[in-house]
């Protein structure tokens, strides 16, 4: 059998790096679309960069995506690129819509025009559920997004479904709940906390300013979640799946576990700063991924507490190296 080829957008991000590792380990030829930046940030993929063929492109530039599909001639396309930070989506709502929503249509169009039989994965999000309508949230739970990011993801989700139904494309949407790792962007709450714990422990910082500690999230490990993306594209028919742990925890619990793992009391360091409180909040996310477990045979390995401790340990090691 000839070597399988995959094209990944968002390859420099958290999920892109874990997915690239997974596909390389399975023998795929991996292509990654990368934006041109004046100072390239390759931190997450530098260790596998020589095994990836990079193609310059941007989700907002259809021509570059068409070219990327031509060059890579993929069997599978994973659309992970997005303006992915919910907080920024209020500051940059139009850019968020252009990349996180319209960018999906651009990528689907490039696939439809150049390689319509390629299998397509869209990175949908539990942020689409937003305001609690029912809990736990499943594939059929109605969407009620609470941020410009969430609204853009709803568009991305439905345009993926629409291309599947209009053109008979093998297009799947993974509704993934929050997933984290030592490679998580520094502004997301888990990494912001674990990085601060390391800095406080090593004497570089003496407080951590945060927003709402009461919101609840269903947090899993990114390394487990990229397996689900791949599994979705190996099925006989395209479908949409919720991927989650089935457990929910408050931000305060996250903070408590992270600080105490480093022998610190969080109450001595956390300062609530209205700057980090969002104009509209998603109070409770809790996913039920029974469908994925039954149909994909997907399972998770890393639990919440283990995940937080892994991230604290990784940040302690990194910050120690920085100050050496
Ligand atoms: P990251 O923020 O770590 O990565 C986002 C990636 O998208 C980066 O590689 C970034 O490139 C790229 N990107 C952003 N805008 C563009 C653009 N206009 N054109 C091309 N590339 C672009 O996100 P994650 O890895 O955490 O998430 C992957 C996907 O999954 C995202 O779509 C996210 O919205 C979604 N998602 C994430 C969840 C999570 O908990 N992590 C949960 C559910 C969905 P650059 O390095 O140049 O900025
Ligand atoms: P989220 O992740 O918005 O769920 O989106 P984030 O880690 O940013 O926030 C989680 C919760 O923590 C609260 N919070 C804070 N958040 C941040 N970033 N900084 C703070 O100081 C802070 N204080 C409290 C937030 O209000 C929120 O309730 C993530 C992203 O990865 C999306 O791309 C993805 O689609 C969803 O998860 C599922």
TrEMBL record:
Coiled coil: none annotated. CDD domains: GDP_MD_SDR_e (cd05260). It is an enzyme of class 4 (lyase). It catalyses: GDP-alpha-D-mannose = GDP-4-dehydro-alpha-D-rhamnose + H2O. GO terms for molecular function: GDP-mannose 4,6-dehydratase activity; NADP+ binding. GO terms for biological process: 'de novo' GDP-L-fucose biosynthetic process. It holds the Pfam family GDP_Man_Dehyd. Residues 7-311 form the NAD(P)-binding domain. InterPro entries: GDP_Man_deHydtase (IPR006368), NAD(P)-bd_dom (IPR016040), NAD(P)-bd_dom_sf (IPR036291). Its cofactor is NADP(+). Belongs to the NAD(P)-dependent epimerase/dehydratase family. GDP-mannose 4,6-dehydratase subfamily. Catalyzes the conversion of GDP-D-mannose to GDP-4-dehydro-6-deoxy-D-mannose. HAMAP family: GDP_Man_dehydratase. This is GDP-mannose 4,6-dehydratase.
């Amino acid at each position: 059998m000839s070597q399988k080829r995959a094209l990944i957008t968002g390859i420099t991000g958290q999920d892109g790096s874990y997915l690239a590792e997974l596909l390389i380990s399975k023998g795929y030829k991996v292509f990654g679309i990368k934006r041109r930046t004046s100072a390239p940030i390759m931190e997450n993929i530098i260790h596998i960069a020589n095994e990836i063929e990079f193609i310059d492109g941007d989700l907002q530039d259809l021509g570059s995506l068409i070219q990327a599909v031509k060059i890579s001639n993929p069997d599978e396309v994973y659309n992970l690129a997005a303006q992915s930070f919910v907080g920024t989506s209020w500051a940059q709502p139009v850019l968020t819509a252009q990349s996180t929503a319209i960018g999906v249509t651009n990528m689907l169009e490039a696939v439809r025009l150049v390689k319509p039989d390629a299998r397509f994965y869209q990175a949908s999000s539990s942020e689409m559920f937003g305001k609690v309508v029912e809990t736990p949230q499943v594939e059929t739970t109605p969407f009620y997004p609470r941020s410009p990011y969430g609204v853009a993801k709803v568009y991305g989700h439905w345009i993926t479904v629409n291309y599947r139904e209009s053109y008979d494309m093998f297009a799947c949407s993974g509704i993934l709940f929050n997933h984290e790792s030592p490679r998580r962007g520094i502004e997301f709450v888990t990494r912001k906390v674990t990085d601060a714990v390391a800095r406080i422990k090593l004497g570089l910082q003496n407080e951590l300013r945060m927003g709402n500690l009461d919101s609840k999230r269903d947090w899993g490990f990114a390394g487990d979640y990229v397996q689900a993306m791949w599994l979705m594209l190996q099925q006989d028919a395209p479908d949409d799946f919720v991927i989650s742990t089935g457990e929910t925890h408050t931000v305060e619990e996250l903070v408590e576990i992270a600080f105490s793992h480093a022998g610190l009391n969080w109450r001595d360091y956390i300062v609530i700063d209205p700057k980090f409180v969002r104009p509209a909040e998603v109070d409770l996310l809790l996913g039920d991924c029974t469908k994925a477990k039954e149909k994909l045979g997907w399972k998770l390995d890393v639990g919440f507490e283990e995940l937080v401790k892994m991230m604290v340990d990784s940040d302690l090691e990194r910050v120690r190296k920085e100050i050496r």
